[in-house]
Amino acid sequence: MRRHFVAAGILVLVIAILTYAVINFSGLATRMNPVAASAQATSIDALWHFEIIVISFLFGLITGPILYSLVVFRRRPGDMTDAVHIEGNSALEIAWTVIPLVFVMFLAYWGAYSLGETRRIGANPLIIKVQAQQFDWSFIYPEYNIVTNELHLPVDRQVVLQMESKDVIHSFWVPEFRIKQDVVPGRITEYRITPSLIGAYKVRCAELCGAHHAYMERPVIVNSQADYDAWIKEQVALAEEMQKSPEGVGQRLVAENGCLGCHTIDGSPKAAPTWLNLYGSNVTLADGTVVIADDAYLSRAILEPAADVVQSYQVLMQPYPFTDAQVASIIAYIKTLK
Amino acid sequence: MKSFWRGLASFLIGAVAGYALGVILEFVITGKLTYGAPVASAFAFFFGFTALAYLGGRNSTIFRGLFWQVVGTFSGAAVMTLLRWILPMVNPAKFGAMDLFGPFLFTEPAWVLGGFVGALTFLAGSGVMDDWFKWMRGIDTPEHHEERFTGFEKYINASLDHKVIGIQYTILALLLLCIGGIFAMIFRTELVASKLQFLTEDLNVFGQNGPQLYNTLMSLHGMVMIVSILLGLAGMMNYLIPLMLGAQDMAFPRLNAFSFWIAVPAGALLLSSLFLGGFDTGWTGYPPLSTRSPLGIQMFFLGVFVAGWSSILGSLNILVTVVRMRAKGMAAMKMPVFIWSSVAASIISLTATQLIGLAFQLVLFQRLLGMGFYDPAKGGNPVLFQHLFWFYSHPVVYVFVLPGLGVISELLPVFVRKPLFGYRWVSMSSLGIALVGFLVWAHHMFSSGMNEYLRVPFMYSTLLVAVPTGVKFFSWVATIWQGKPITPTAMLFVLGAIVVFLLGGLTGPPNATVSTDLHLHDTYYIVGHFHDTIFGGFVFPFFAALYYWFPKATGRRMNETLGKIHFWLMTPSFFVLTVGMMYAGMLGMRRRIVDYDPALGLDSTHLVLTISGYLIAISIAVFLWNFFYSIKHGEKAEGNVWNSRSPEWQVPSPMPTHNYDRPFEVVGEPYDYGLEGSKYVQFIEPAPNSAAGKH
């Protein structure tokens, strides 16, 4: 019997090492995702690597003896007798209750420690407001009065995103940052991250938020401090410039309110009609009538989305409480899209 | 069988006629010809079912019930519409003019009342509650009904026999498994490459465009499969538990029939959501998204609500049966281990199902009556829903897997000819899992925005589940060790179950430790992980049970070659499918998306996943052919085919109507294989004179 234990033990190790090797070959053993772009990812990936080692070992530990028994102890043809009568072994049962218990408590402790690491508060964090709505993200830099649909972050400085949803639950996830946080209507949730690798990533909404959930993605760009400063400067200038003309004010309102989550400005189809060449064009409504997209029509479409539905579209849009001046600026912006 | 085909034919005729009528009506009203529009589909649906029931077979419970469900739905909807028409006339100040007709002819309140009334009229009209109605009027009914039907007819009519009900559950489960599987194949085909393939923006099916239809199918796939699993479990437990206990039937045979038949209108309600605008929330139905979804979400809520009754009443019946109806000498620690796992699962179903009903009911009320349970603008809290929802929906995972793990523990000793290692530990670990299962729900909400310090205690409790689960794995390994294993199809599925469930179990801890879960949550990693746990814990053991107990129910066995083709086609494909899903998830593939960013570089991975999905579908087709063909044409197997010690195999197959003609007594341990001259049960011979007249 000792021979069997030794042989099965070797098989356990072989399977465990092979499992680890395959996972490592696919690039997922030592880290979860090809690139880790945040300081928080370090402690998460370390825990993950430990878990992969444990998974590989336990996979071998269970499948090894089963495989061995199926081959070595298999019933030979013609053998109609039963196997040896062993009912159990309390010492063994206690052992494989207590050892896993101690082990999972250790794992939970490590998990709690690793969670604490990801929540560690850094010095002088940069605060950015994030607004989520079906199906777009807007980023507001309160210090500089900038609104964009592209999140730029300086490398190696902690960022706190204060996130709010206008409609349903969304979830802020940049795979390279590892961390995910839901954005819930009626409250502000916080996302704390320290980007550590310069590069272009994407925020991808991870909580099902409706028909076009799949497309709720926006660029997240980690810049060097110098590039970041330059970008801020450019955006501040742009914002000041925009304040001067009605179409500029309109463009900012569009970015602030996530209009481009459904509408496009390049003529491509999305959840709502495109704005390219919209002003002054003929629009066919659901009931078959054709109207001209003039100021009166556009203003009504913004304030009462359900009033005139464009053919082959569904009303996903909620009424927006804009002032007349704001509506006029948005229309002024739409006019420029030709 | 004939009335079944007649029913199906009339359904198709009715559906086509209804569809045509809907298109014509819409043309008359709007002056436009559209196909697949909501009115036409609603007409097709209802005329189909009416014709099915009326022309198809008024004499069979199922078609009669469906007919009354249609009548009830229309009546309920009409009453609500009438009320909404009258109220403004009575008190114009309080009730302004109401919009009477929505895009589906009736408004949402009308459909909800209609759907609810329809479920009740199904039960009243189908005759399932006849005995209770008679008792209310003071009329006695016989304790046992003799079967009025034979062959296939038996299974589309109400019966009080637990074996018939068990098979009815199983067949309905297989039907829903196929429907849910077809949904999966449709969206798996869509996902074969990035960009939209055929579920495009300009599609219009049942009033939904491509991405909306994708969301409906994906959401329904989840819930249809869950209901299918609950029915499949109920099938195994109903069929086996009285046989293993030595009882003639369940404790409450009429309640048992009621529990089954209520699942039929529930399934109809659930599927009707596809035709009533669909819904886009996933099976979880999180508000506020579910408060903005189309009408389909209400039918989904109602369907789950009604299916919950089936679960609650069924588990009550099982608990009472196990407590009250065990054979002489069957002490708690001498029960077959499958009974222990069923008891653990039933405790969860009996006490937790209410919470999902409640969670959904509150959204239903929020939509209909403007209540603000989950609406922050009215002081509500959307995260509250998630707590209520997961308080059921996590423990229910253990409802899915516990009976399956029981099947593994039950079958292993038979096929390795060796006692179950550590019977007491294995049976008690089921109760351990059930207990800990109640304390872990918030691990689905680590990123939800709930109080962040709560995440740590929930991580501890979640990891604790590994301990009793580990006891099961180690005990199975010790059972096989030094055994004499053989590998017929049933045993292959047992082994497949162990490995697949192991994969599901081992991929769990990274979701339990909060920091790693913050990356994995809501990605394909989770999708792969839970498909492993559900297939390993339910689907594989369910197939093992079907291959194993098939001779008991039919007196014939399923074809071994086809069985092995089924296994060797399904298992590797499934392995590739779920491991591939986990891989894609880690690289950034989110759950529940109709399209993915080509920049992720996952196109070839998805192609492999889709091919694996198709191979699984083919293997299921092989199984279904084998299953239905073998009922009539399988090789005869009337004896103790597996050489088991369990009482049901000590009498010839198929099982007689009232089970054992002599009671049995437990005289030994259930799994003492290898112990010379030992027996689990012994039949008590009636004394020669006294019993003659009584029996």
What report would you give on this structure?
With 338 residues, chain A is of the alpha+beta class. Chain A folds into three domains: 2-71 and 92-118; 126-242, Cupredoxins -  blue copper proteins (Immunoglobulin-like); 245-335, Cytochrome Bc1 Complex, Chain D, domain 2 (Orthogonal Bundle), CATH 1.10.760.10. Helices cover 41% and strands 18% of the residues of chain A. Chain A has seven helices and twelve strands. In chain A, helix 1 (2-25) runs antiparallel to helix 2 (39-72), helix 2 (39-72) packs antiparallel against helix 3 and helix 4 (225-244) packs across helix 5. The longest helix of chain A has 34 residues, at 39-72. The model of chain A has no long low-confidence stretch (mean pLDDT 91). Chain B contains 23 helices and four strands. Chain B has two domains: 2-136, no CATH class; 159-636, Up-down Bundle (Cytochrome C Oxidase, Chain A), CATH 1.20.210.10. In chain B, the strands form two sheets. A two-stranded antiparallel sheet of chain B has the order 1-2. Mean pLDDT of chain B is 90; it is low at 691-695. In chain B, helix 6 runs parallel beside helix 8. The radius of gyration of chain B is 26 Å and the shape is globular. Chain B is an all-alpha fold and 695 residues long. Classes of the chains: A alpha+beta (338), B mainly alpha (695). Chains A and B meet through helix 2, helix 3, strand 7 and strand 9 of A and helix 7, helix 15, helix 16, helix 17 and helix 18 of B.
Fold topology:
The complex is a heterodimer of chains A (338) and B (695).
Chain A: H1 2-25, H2 39-72, H3 90-118, E1 126-133, E2 136-141, E3 146-148, E4 151-154, E5 159-165, E6 170-173, E7 180-183, E8 189-193, E9 199-205, E10 217-223, H4 225-244, H5 246-256, E11 282-284, E12 290-292, H6 295-303, H7 324-335
Parallel strand pairs in A: 1-5, 4-10
Antiparallel strand pairs in A: 1-2, 2-3, 5-8, 6-7, 6-9, 9-10, 11-12
Helix pairs in contact in A: 1-2, 2-3, 4-5, 5-7
Chain B: H1 2-30, H2 38-56, H3 61-90, H4 108-126, H5 130-136, H6 162-190, H7 210-245, H8 253-261, H9 263-275, H10 289-292, H11 296-324, H12 337-369, H13 382-393, H14 395-416, H15 423-437, H16 455-464, H17 466-480, H18 489-506, H19 509-512, H20 514-520, H21 524-554, E1 556-557, H22 560-586, H23 603-633, E2 635-636, E3 664-666, E4 681-683
Antiparallel strand pairs in B: 1-2, 3-4
